[in-house]
Structure formats: structure tokens, C-alpha cells
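Two folds, back to back.
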Amino acid sequence: MPPSSEPAYVGIAQRKQAQLEAGIPAEWKLPAHMIPAGMLSVADSLTKANQYKRVNVMDIPRKSGILTQRQLDITEKFDVRGLLSQMADGKLSAEEVATGFCKRAAVAHQVTRCLTEPLFASAIERAKQLDEHLQRTGKPVGPLHGLPISVKDCFRVKGADASIGIASLAFKPSTLNSPIVSLLLSLGAVIIAKTNVPQTMGALDSCNHLFGRTLNPLNRQLTAGGSSGGEGVLVAMRGSMVGFGTDIGGSIRIPAMCNGIYGFKPSVGRVPFGDLESGQMPGKGRISLQAVGGPLASSVADLGAVMAEIVPRAELFGEDCIPGRWERESAILPELKPRKFTVGVLRSDGIVTPLPPIARILDEVAESLRQTPGVEVVEIPLPAALKKCQSIAGRLMGVDGGATMLDILEETGEPLIPWLEPRTKRGNPLSLAQLAQLQEQRSAVEKELLAMWTINGFYTDRVDAIITPVAPHPVPEIDRYNAVGYTSSFVLLDYPAGTVPVRNFRESDLETGIDMNAPILGSWDKANRALWNEKTVDRRVYLDSPLSVQVITPKQHDYELFQAMEIIDRASQAWQGAKSAGSKL
């Protein structure tokens, strides 16, 4: 028999998909009528994505009949601290909590393709061990005892693949845990699943040849985001209490925006990041742009609940971490008088003009803060140096010319996904002199942008946090995300940054028949306008999609970011609620 003419990656992908399917118990599988029509095959999900119809699958876990009423309550009614309290007090067992979340994750996957490694059997077994320990000793294993957590596929979990959606990395189970996984386990958490990513982890729509495309559960015509797209979807569908992703260009904040949840990108050194699979040259992050790990959750409080346990212990698990406390890090400088909490409004990056609904949502959040006692709102003039950040960040991401990743793909004849194919090619690695020059430019930009954090140069008039868009457009259709500079710039600067959802896109946001008149700033801005031009997009596709803002604080002010996100979230939700109720604001 002649050898198969198919590239090796095809057979590997088929085996991997069969393995994933086998990891979901038969009794947890949805009947055919519960799966929305038009669920494309794995292969077609990459090449025919424009065929997806507007479908919201958020209610399917509740309607499926696979979860009992008690399991629905467990997965829906508690925040992190509430669920932990229920288990610590013996009102809920870790086993029934893990089982409920595993079931929900299984259902979520069947309608969104959000998982890569269902770890259900090992998760339930660990939960049983946690219950036995609590019963025997009367004490929980740790402060996150029994908390169901998911992790992005790049993080290593002993005994499971970290394939990052690439065939040549499949069927090579990890022999150790990534430090963040070890830390979470030491705190008592239960890792229930690993989640999907884009091929190369260098795209903002999570799809690959191994697992297919992850779909947005709110509207499958829209992107679920990337590269932590599987995490964003699973957390949004309450299949996990907290998900851990990574962020080098926006890969935590963007999926949070796309799925209407909260995301937290910390400063370097707060969350252990080593020993994961990136498909990149080992050590690249130490000389280029350093990615970070961080949580996605359903509330600011849930982000704080896990960060409060991780930050003080991170230095014990990650060689890349610093000593830290989950409280105000810096001493309070002497001030002449009590000072209000000051929030700056940064309206643009100077390269891409935000579309009208994004400008409007920033206005609404700013107005909600102006009406909040103890808060002052100031406008941040566009710093000239901010325009340089996107270019510097992009060049630092490509310091090695991309050869390592392309070599890995070529091992099995795996092609680039359609979105990456015209955008990815081998380049020349930067020389030491070129790299040094680039880092010098980075330092100059960092120095210039320090001025954003003071008003008129006085330390007593500090800006505590800044609100700015996550992206200059609403959640876009599949493969149409534009202008990553709104998020990558703050990785370059190492500013902690988070996503806060505000409200959904409304009929009044459509502005049908009204075009933007502002001059086009360049090619990025032109591409962004195409997402609003009624000749190139039906704006109604955005209806009911989440609109969010990004919150940033100065370097290493991670706890202050958490505080700022709380203030902004409460203010905006109260203002939106009053507005919906017809109050005069």
C-alpha cells in the first residue's frame, strides 16, 4: 500500500480530537438537538468562519438537563469567596463542586470548542482527596480549597499535553507542572481543564488545526478573542470559577472584552510565568517583551480573591517573581491635604481613532465617576510617546525572526491558519546592536510616559488610574480584530491593566446612516473604519455584544489596579442601572 499523501498533522489532529472526545463521559454529552445548527467541522471552522450564524448558547448548560438543579446552583450562585466558604464549612463537598463545574465545562465545550484537555477524572479524584483531608483534619488544604480553576493550554499540567494547538507538540504529556499550576495546587485549587488558543498564540481569534475554532457563546458571528480565548469562553459560561491566561499583546484583556467578563494583566513578577510551552526560543522573553500570566473571572472580587493568595507566595514558586503583598505596595508620600482618588481619561492611542460606541462608553464611565463621591476625573492629553509603543512592542515580539515556531509547524507539514498565512513569514533575528537600540527606545518612551501620572508635574496631584479603550472597536466579527496597540503598549510599559465590562451594545449605539468624519490617521485607522463603514459591515452584528473599558495603573501598582477596577465597576454599574431605571443623572 502506498504511503498516505496527507501531511502528518492531519492524522495527529484526528487522533487528538478523538482523545478529547473520549475525555467527556457519555452521560455528559448533549443530544444532537441541543447543539445549534451550523456547527462547522473542525477544518471548516478555520476556513468557512463567515458561515456562522448569530447564536447565543449561554443558556444551554441550564437547559441541557445534564446538570442537576443543585449543580446549577453551585455553578451559578456563588462568587469565589462564597464558594470557598461553603466548602470550608462542609455545606458543599469539593467533589460535588468539581463534578458540577466539570459537567458545565463539558457542555460549554460541545457548543464552543473551548477545551483542549478535559481533566475531569483527575479533578474529581483530587476533590475527593481534599474532602478526605478536611474530614480527617478539620482544616482545608489551603485558602483555595476545592476552587475549580482552568488554565490556558500553554501551562503545563503533569500528565497532560501542552500542545498549544500544534500537531508536532501533541501526544507529549508534560512531566511536571508549570510553577503557577504548582502554586494553585498548593493553595488547594482543583484544575479541571485546559483551554484553547490560536495557532502560534500570535492571533486574536482562538483557532488551530488541532482543535478548531473556539466560538463566542454570546454570538458566534463574533470573535471569542485570543490568545486566551478558550479561557474567556469557559469563564463566561461558568464552566470555571477562575481561568488563568497569558498576556503579551492583550491576550487576557481581549478575551475578557469579547466575552463580557473581567481580566487582569499584572506587572511582571506578580504571577509565576516560567516552564510553559510557548513554541518560542527558550529565554526569548528575557531579552524581548516579557509576557505575564493572570486571571479571568466573573467579577473584580473574584480576581482579587485569587490574586490575594498568589501575590504573597509567588516568589516561592517562580524564579521570575518578586516579593509582594496584596496591599498598597508603596509608602504614602506626604501630602498637603486629603486627596481625592483621581482617574484619568485617555481617549486614544493616537494611531487609531475609537469608533463612536467606544468613545461613548468611555464618556459614560467618566460621567459615572464624576458623580461618585471622593473621585476626581481628569483628561489625559495624548502623550506623543504613546504613538511609538505599538511599533516598539511589535518589533520586540519578533526579535528572533519567528524561525522556531515555523520550524515546529513544518515538522508535520502543518500550514498556517488562514488569518496568519499572509501575515507570517521568516525574518532575520535582530543583532545585539539592533536589540540594544530597540531597548533604548523603549526606555525613552517609558521615561516620557511617566508624565501621565502627575498633573502639572506635582506629586501631590497624582493620577491613580487611567481608563482607556481595550480596543478602538466593539467585539468584531471572526478574524476582524484590529489595533492591538491599545493593549500591547501596556505590556511594553509593564503597567498592570484590566478589563471591566460596562454594558451591552444597544440599538441607540448603531447610529444608522451616520458616518465618521474625522480624518483617517493611517492604515490601522483605515482598517478600523471598515468595522463601522456600513458598506463593509452590518452594524447590527454588534447588538447585545459587551462594551468594556480598560483600566491601567503605574508599574507594580497591581493592588491599586484592583482597587481602581472595583471603584470603576461599581460606579459604572450604578450609573447604568440608574439610567436604565429612568433616573435623572
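---
second:
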Amino acid sequence: MKEAMPVLSAGAGLHETLALLTSQLRPDANHKEDMVFLKDVFSEKSLSYLMKIHEKLRQYERQSPTPVLHSASTLAEDVAEELQSGPMSAEEKELLHLLTSPHLKAVLSVHDTVAQKNFDPVLPPLPDDFEDELDEESVKIVRLVKNKEPLGATIRRDESTGAVIVARIMRGGAADRSGLVHVGDELREVNGSSVMHKRPDEISQLLSQSQGSITLKIIPAIREDDKLKESKVYMRALFDYTPLEDKATPCQEAGLPFKRGDILQVVSQDDQTWWQAKKVGDCNLRAGLVPSKQFQERRLAYRIKMGSLQSSKSPKKAVYDQGCDKEDCDCEGYFNGQYIAGLRRSFRLSRKDRRGSLGARINELKQKVIAENPHRYAVAVPHTTRPKKSHEKEGLEYHFVTKQAFDADAQNNKFIEYGEYKENLYGTSIEAIRSVQAKNKMCLVDVQPEALKALRTAEFKPYVIFVKPRIPESRRRRSAATSPGGGEHGRITEEDLQEMRLSAQQTDQQYGHLVDRVLIKEDTASACAELRSILERLERETFWVPMSWVKA
């Protein structure tokens, strides 16, 4: 007598069918091992969970759902940004945690892809005769799917063999995500078209123009198992970079543009000349090429050298700019009835006939800031070889030293900078800055850009502010122009404006990478307020410094 099998209802799901089938499996003498194997497979919880998920999806599919919106990810980001803009309750913090979790972000991304019907194309079948041409031990066929994005790989021509070689794989690109293309692979064909006799730019164009599926015939590199380790180095950009304007880049389309102040995550430093990086906060997962630190420094040094050669053709006499129109004036800086020593000492190179000294105006900013709060800010007391006046005190206005002692200190590199005015020497010493710091005060120093190399050390950790006047656009005119800053320092000529403009441009090109903040001086009041705000933030906020300054 045979045992009757239970009858399933019409609404039974797949997981119920699977459970019933498992219960009906009975060991058989002839197929005992097969039956045990099947029972073990059908009893797996993971398989049961998959069946339940499949059933739920089919039920949802029968309801013919339609998306409410096509940009759920963007909406979630906007909500998260709004939550972070102010104080949050416990519920709001929980919501923010959910919206920023990678799993929910992935679900919303999939939702948007489905809502926008942005599906990858279906791969076409391989040609029937394709396999006949291949030696499986030496050649492989790689088929990738990409949309409008670049392939994410750069190529080079081997000088000895003429072969087209994969030079680098861009992190996060289509080639990197596939895991099928490696550095050193030899590229033979793209979509059935030979690249042996094509120029690298023609091949790059062919790769970038290919949409949907792209088929590559590749001779694998000897070492395919070299997996690049993801770097966790973060850097702050110290200059603007536009790949399309960089003729040295191996692939302009693969370059990553950035602005000064952007935070970059360097994901690969394997190439000593071109690193791969991503901009922090950028939703683009694909890395781009940026010049390496060493390469950029070499380029900058070359530009400085060429600029020096150009400027040496028309040398100018360097003089000490006292910042005062009176020939016999030796003003030290009385401000609001309070005497502040050394504030007018600015070792700036200037023409003797220049009026409206920028150095004097920078000193005026320092005067105002220090006079408002002398307990927090101070300047370094300078050294001088001029005779002491009757009202002056040693170590207050100046450190009065002999010329021999001054020269000895200069030879021993004890000054961050020094200069000569009216046959007297003036200098700011490193020890004078240390003396201000020892009093737990912030030392405000106005120096020539060349002195930044001596100041930018782990000991001082300076925050560099480049004060630039608002220089009007060049105009052809014969009459004198009012000087930037409200005309409070007289009138200057168009020639003066042009020289100031070129000086600011050269300073930015040669030393801009050392500058933390650029302060555009419209007028004294607004510039003083901005400087005060910057200094106050420095006391309560963190700022970027070279890694070597914080290493133990």
C-alpha cells in the first residue's frame, strides 16, 4: 500500500513547497547518498530565506508598483544636510544615522536606478569564429559594460616592442570594478578593431567613444595578482588644478580638477609622477589623476627658476621700505595713545619713489588688532644697530646691538630676515618670536615670502595669511589713480598699480602653496575685522599642517 502525498493549496508559496518536498524525502537503499545530499540542500536556511524573498517580490510585482520620485538619494542627502545644520533631538539623530548608513544609501541608489530605468545594456553574443583565433594560454577576451563614463585606464606605447600597454588602472572606474584588466596587460584589439598601428590618442578616443559593452583582446601581464592597496592618505590642496590646461598629464580626460582648499583622498601613489585621488564629498567613486607632490614641487621650482632668470634681466635696487613719506621719519608706532614697538618695521622690497606702502598698511592692521587685545597678541621685538634714543628702553622698542654682533647673528642664521635702512641694520630674530610664544601670546609677524621657509617649522607651526590689496583693473590713462584702500595713502600711478599686480601674481605663483588664507584688503576697517575673525578662529579651531609637524 502506497503512502499518499499531501496536496498543496493553490496559494502555497515556494518555501512551503520546499518544506513539503524535504519532508517527503526518504532514505533509499539504492540512492541513500543522493537522498541525504538533497535533504541537506533543501534544509538549508539560506535557501528557505531566498524562496521567501522571491515570493514577496513576486507578490509586490503583481501590484505593478510605480516610483513616487526618481531621485530618492538626493532627497535623503538634502534631509541629512538639513538635520546637520542645527541641534538635533534623539529621534533626529537616529534618522540621520539611518540616512547616512551605507546599506540604506545603496538601497536608495538601486531605487533611483530602477526608477530612471538606467539599466546596463544586454551583452551581445560572441562571434562564432572568435574562439578559433585565440590561444587560451596567452590571450584573454575581456567584455566590460560601461555607460558614458570613461573606461578608467590609461595606456602607453612600449618603446622597444611597440606594444600598447595598460599603464594604470583608475580606482573605481569600469576597468577597476571588473577586476579583469591589470597594469602591464598588452592591448591588442578594441571591439574587434586592431590597435597595433594606432596612435595612443586614437586608441584613447576609441575607448572613450565606446558605449554599452566593450570587448578587449588582451595578452595578460606576467603578474596579474598584484592588487593595489587602497591608500588612506588625505591632503588639502594648496593650489588650483585644471587637467585640460596641463600638457604634462598622460590623459587629460582622466585628470581630477580641484581648487585650493579641497580635501583629496590619495588612493594610489604607485606612480611617482601621477597619483590617483578622489575629492572628499564627491559622489563620483572613480579616482582621477593628480600631479604627485614631488612632481609638482619640481615644476614649481622650475617656474621659480625661470622667473628669477627673467627678473634678473632688469634688476632693481632693494631698499628698506619704512612705509612713511617723510625722509627723516623713524616712527615706531603710536596707536590710540598706546606705544607698540616695531610695528612699522617691514622688510619689503620697494621702489624709493613708491607712495602708499602696502607694508605700512599691513602694519596698521597689526596695530589695530594688538591695541584691542595686547594680552593675546604681540609682535617680535626687532634688533637694530642704530643708536638708542633718549626715550627708548632696551628690549622694549628694539634690541640695540653693535654691527659686529648683528653680523655675527646674521651669519649664524639667527634672523628670519633682516635689511638695511639709512645705513642701519634691522632684523627680526627667531629668538624674539620664541620670547612672544613663551608669554603665551600669538606672535604676529610681517615678513617677505622668502622668510616663510625659515618660519614653516614644527616649532612655530605658522598660519600664513597673504594680505592683498584690491587692485583695480588696468586702464590706459594719463592721470594718477587713487590708491587701493580708500585713497588714505595718497595717489599712485598706473605704473604702480601694474607693479603691485605683477608682484601679487608672482607671490601667488611662487608661494601660494604655503598660504593658508588670502585676505583681500578693501579698506582698513573691513580688513581688520576679517583679520581679527581669523585669529579668533585659530584659537578654537583646528587647521591643516604638514604631516611631518605632528609626527611623534
